[in-house]
Amino acid sequence: MLPDDSKPFHVVCDASDFAIGCALMQFDDEGCERVVSYQSRQMKPAERNYPVHDKELLAMRYALIKFRVYLLGEQTFAVYTDHTSLRTAMKSPHLSQRMARWLSFFAEYNFVVHYKPGKNNIIADALSRRPDYDPRTVLGRQVIDDEDEDDDHCAVCIASGINLTNVSPEMDLRDEIVAAYADDAVYAGIVAYLRTPSDETLGALSRNTRNQIDRYHLDGDLLCYNIDKFDAPRVVVPNDGNLRARIIHEFHDSPMGAHLGREKTFAAVSRDFFWPHMYKWVRKWVRTCETCQRVKPSKSSQAPLRPLPIATEAWRSVSMDFIFGLPPDAESRTGVLVFVDRFTKMVHLIPVSDTVTVAETAAHFIDCVFRHHGLPESIVSDRDPRFTSAFWSSLFQLLGTKLSMSTAAHPETDGQTERVNRVLEDVLRSYATSFASWSSFLPLAEFALNNAEHASTVLTPFFANNARHPRVPALIAVGHPTAPRGSTLGGDEDDVNDMTSAAHEDVTLNAVTRSTTKKALATPDIAASPLATWTARTLIDPGNTGVSVAANYVPKIPARPVDNAADAVDKQKENADKRGRKNMATFATGD
Questions:
Q1: What are residue 321's DSSP bridge partners?
Q2: What DSSP string describes 165-221?
Q3: Whole-prediction pTM value?
Q4: Alpha carbon of residue 462 to chain centroid
Q5: Residue spans of beta strands (DSSP E) within 245-290
Q6: Which of 198, 264, 370, 542 is deepest in the core (most CB within 10 A)?
């Protein structure tokens, strides 16, 4: 409720072994206790060593600091705690040095301490035991039961402890998976049948399992699963919550996972692993990821799509852009130069300073694009002075490359690179442990973006370029000897060319289909609705000052159906920190 100065306030507080929490409360007109404000924080390492008495006193001090504007000068108010000794702490003749220092602070307030049993101090107790504050857990994730069909829990409500596990060479993930088969009733029977095929072991399986038994095979002691005969084998993970959580953590929370969304994380995990209800596991994991909820922006409005023509070959058309305004790293670099192939969606990232020159930009282009992929026929960019300079234009005119630049003050033209910029900023914010460390995560961020399935091509950029997926640490830990799906290892040159050509055909077909579908569904047919009401109007960003005032008013369009690509966008926090993205919705009209 909103604070009412005519009514008295009271405070509840509590401390646990790793966090403190408090709440400012008031009674409404009906006599019901209402919360005005919540506050909590994790304890510092030194504070965790305090005795219990001092931890509870720390929670009280924290509450008075946070609610100072409401409580200072207030008539006598009550502070409720579940530590009864605090009632006489201010009058004790034996004070520790810490309590003596805090005594002058408490003297500014006129309050009375009351004892409230822990079982009744529910709000403060819950705030002080937030699982994401507990250093003993990995992001406070809960083991998800396969039988649980309820996905409507919040991140805090479903959080509880998976113990922190360090993956080391001594802890072989393969051995743990093999050992866990014995505790899984379904997979133990499958393994027993595959080792000693007989009518007895086959009869012990359920009817559904018997119908799918030809999809399973043993790779040594490791159980593998094939969807069909053309599908590469996937490692079967038994019904062990910690094992499944470790695998999802590797593909989502690690720097190579980059905290990407639900669909991309599921595509990465399901590429090499299998277990029932995997999609539900990934969906809950991403939805309850505290980092994703904190750093990712809310979805913005969409305008009619006008995508650029689809590229016809890998690295024939490249888009590029700068990201500036990042904190200076150890080498005083504050920006990133981004190159994106418009066909395969592969990304190259280079840290640069804000004083980067045209010649340095050209050198980065040669080092990161030309050296690996050859010269593109066209480059899409905005009108940055580095791209409009005579040197840049003359250089690419001599090389035979066409420069396609966007309209002034219209970044949506190069929407592909702008979208990569937004995702990259979210990734760096998720992993940078300090303001100066962001550049050290760029190689891993580039790998994560190129190893994630793209919504337009339905392929990863790595596979679209090379017709094979790279190996990741999880596969090495499992020791799965089968080459990654689509691998060209051991094949001759004709096989490599055939697989690459097939991948490019898939990219073109998927890109055309997705682009046409998205444009058809996202673009309203104004001509077919001549009776659209103009009574409700919405003010939008005018952009250039030359646009007429009448163009700033458009009819409200009702909610439209979205395609499966748009539906794959993560459900993100309403009030996310946009970090300089402004609070104005910018319509994305690029590809």
A1: 338
A2: ----TTS-HHHHHHHHGGG-HHHHHHHHHHHS--HHHHHTS-HHHHHTGGGEEEETT
A3: 0.60
A4: 21
A5: 273-274
A6: 264
Residues 6 or more apart whose CB falls under 8 angstroms from that of 316 comprise 343, 376, 377, 378
Give me Rg for the CA atoms of the chain. 29
User: What φ, ψ does residue 320 adopt, rounded to 5°?
Assistant: -145, 155
> Contact, 576 vs 296, CB < 8 A?
yes
- H helices of 332-414, where? 358-365, 371-373, 385-388, 390-399
10-129 belongs to which homologous superfamily? Ribonuclease H-like superfamily/Ribonuclease H (3.30.420.10)
pLDDT in tens, the chain (591 residues): 888 888 899 999 999 999 999 999 999 888 898 999 999 999 999 999 999 988 999 999 999 999 999 998 878 899 999 888 888 777 777 777 888 888 888 888 989 999 998 888 899 999 999 887 887 764 445 444 444 444 444 333 333 444 444 444 444 788 888 889 988 888 888 988 888 888 888 888 888 888 888 888 888 888 899 887 777 888 999 988 888 998 999 899 888 888 888 999 999 999 889 999 999 999 999 988 888 888 887 766 665 556 677 777 888 888 888 888 888 888 889 999 999 998 889 999 999 998 888 888 888 988 888 889 988 888 888 777 777 777 677 777 777 777 777 665 556 666 677 778 788 888 888 876 666 778 888 898 899 889 988 887 788 898 988 888 888 887 777 766 544 444 433 444 454 455 555 555 655 555 544 444 444 444 444 444 443 443 444 444 444 444 433 333 333 333 333 333 333 333 333 334 444 444 444 444 444
Hey, do 10-129 and 173-289 end up sharing a CATH topology, with the first three levels equal? no
CATH of 173-289, one of 1.10.340.70, 2.60.40.10, 1.10.10.10, 3.40.630.40: 1.10.340.70
- With beta carbons less than 8 A apart as the criterion, state whether 262 and 287 touch: yes
Which two structure tokens, joined as six digits, stand for 589?
């009209």
**DSSP state letters, 101-146:** HHHHHHTTS-EEEEE--TTT-HHHHHHTT-GGG-TTBSTTPPPPPT
Give the integer Cα–Cα distance in Å for 198 and 202. Answer: 6
Edge-to-edge strand list for the sheet holding 33-42 = 33-42, 19-27, 10-15, 77-81, 111-115
- Measured from the Cβ of residue 391, the count of other Cβ atoms closer than 10 Å reads 13
Taking CA atoms, 333 is separated from 161, 365, 485, in Å, by: 39, 18, 38
